[in-house]
Amino acid sequence: MIDELRHSLKGKKVVNNCIGVAYTSVMLSDGSLGISHTITEGENSLCGEVFGNDAVSLVESLKNSPIERSVSVAILNSVGNIEGYENGDPIDVLEGNKLCVFGYSPGTVTNRFVSVTIYDFWNPPQRSFDNVTVKPFSSFTSETCDSTVIFGSALVAGNIEKILASISTDHLILSGISSVYAPITLKKYGFDYIGKVIAVDKIKALRVVCEGGLAKHLSRFTKKIYVKL
């Protein structure tokens, strides 16, 4: 992803950065805004040096822990010229027998699939309700699904390679607030949809993150979009 987006990041600097309780936000010198999940594991080796630093240098350096990837994924999330997108969630245009979902407490509710299996990165006890089964991600070994949604938080947590190596699916979607628009790279790995959450009011979305806002607060200043690759 970094190689694909390097040109878009070239010459840009971080002019604002907040690591909030739920999300991390980065604003670049061209006014673009990126948001990702905050995962408070490890330490930020460049703490105190992010502001004013070169965006390319930061994404190449901040990759050794979830807290560092919270920043680097937010930077990657900020770029990408998305043309021809549709409003909404890509899961709403797919249907089938089995849907698999990977993320932090992903609240995926759909009647377009017979069953939904959720692998939760928080590793809660297994439970079932309606057509949904929630399993701890620690129990994941392999799955065969009609469609699979991997939330961008997998990029922050460092789980995406394990998932891609162990999943068989007809449709593969990268989605959510931490999703990154890198269509060439993602298509190479088998993704056929990218869903993103983009800010419709960048300043207010930035302030929500900096002031400790949650998903319900951020949703007022963002919207869901998707593209088919």
TrEMBL record:
Gene3D superfamilies per record: 3.40.50.11590
Pfam families (alphabetical): DUF364, DUF4213
InterPro entries noted in UniProt: DUF364, DUF4213
Domain (Putative heavy-metal chelation) ranges: 91-228
Superkingdom of the organism of origin: Archaea
Domain DUF4213: 2-79
Record's protein name: Conserved protein
Lineage: Archaea, Thermoproteota, Thermoprotei, Sulfolobales, Sulfolobaceae
